[in-house]
Amino acid sequence: MSTNTAPTGHPKQPPELEAEPFGDSALMFRARSDDAGVRRAVAGRLRDLLLGMRPYGMVDVVAGVESLLLEFDCLAVSHGQLAQTVRLAAAGADWDGLLSGAAAAPPRAHFVIPMVVSEEYSPDLPGVAEELGMSPEAVLAAFASSTLTINLLAAAMAPMMGGVKFPGQVSRCREPRTNVEPGSVMVAGTNAIIQPFPGPSGWKVIGRTPVTICDIREDPATSYLPGDTVRFEVVPESEWQGLEGTFLRAATADQPAADSDAARQPGSAL
User: Fold this and answer.
1) CA neighbours closer than 13 Å in the CB half-sphere of residue 262
2) What angle do CA 165, 199, 140 make, to 5 degrees?
3) What is the pLDDT of residue 6?
4) Nearest to 203 by CA among 161, 232, 237
5) Contact assessment for residue 106 and residue 226, using Cβ atoms and an 8 Å cutoff
6) In sequence order, what E strands does 182-269 have?
7) What pTM value is reported for the model?
8) CB neighbourhood size of 150 (10 A)
9) CA–CA separation, 102 vs 81, rounded Å?
10) Which of 26, 44, 81, 212 is the most exposed place for a label (fewest CB within 10 A)?
């Protein structure tokens, strides 16, 4: 007789939710679990659930890697009323069914993104190496060997990715930069993100990609979605000019197999 155990990150029972007030008109929801995979799965499923039911008073939902911020009209509903509504909705949802539906979805794309490392493009690499107790070369090797999963699209469609194989957590900058160049590849914790457009950030910059990951002239503006996987490949700075401005696109069905050397086109999905 064998016992089947639910895989990590895939809760089949209604999760126990923490609801923390954020100001007068927002609630932060997290799954009460020590498993980061469970917290991520619950945050994603809860977002889909709330967008489908749109409880009374809801204004917007903002997804985090392991949490969900629910903004609401404080003149229409209270923190306690909305928290109770969300918990009842979660308790009545078919979590097993939601996960089965996700499993039936088509496979996601896998992207190989070129990254150039230099004194200009990687200002925080020495500090990250010192913080992790590694050489800069070892940091880059660990980063390039990691297959990352896009957990969500942050501000300006920035892909927020988890799964970096660092031996520890990378802290954020003590003082955030007011302007980070587009294409900057940044890390914090064991997560990574790419800056699509110029803007502020407190994440640590370890490289820059010459490809364009978000272009409002394209339809859609990005070729990636949550659930897609990403691997970074460090390329020589001499390749920058030939790749600069190339829009990141998914592979087509007639491209060679991913394990072929000819197929490994930097800046495209394999």
Assistant:
1) 4
2) 25
3) 42
4) 161
5) no
6) 184-188, 191-194, 199-201, 204-208, 229-234, 268-269
7) 0.69
8) 24
9) 30
10) 81
Helix, strand, coil percent values for the chain (each to nearest 5): 25, 25, 45
The residue with tokens 């090797």 is 141
DSSP structural state of residue 185: E
Structure tokens at 257: 């197999």
212 contacts 113 by C-beta, under 8 angstroms: no
Q: What type of residue sits at position 18?
A: E
- Per DSSP, the residues of 109-148 read PEEEEEEB--TTT-TTHHHHHHHHTS-HHHHHHHHHT--E
| Structure-token match 């929801």, residue found | 29
What's the half-sphere exposure (Cβ side, CA atoms, 13 Å) at 48?
15
**In whole angstroms, what is the distance from residue 8 CA to residue 71 CA?**
29
Residue type present at position 151: N
Token pair of 118 as six digits: 């230099």
Q: pLDDT digit string (tens) for 75-88?
A: 999 999 999 999 99
pLDDT digits (tens, 9 = 90+) for 97-153: 544 444 444 567 899 999 999 999 999 999 999 999 999 999 999 999 999 988 888
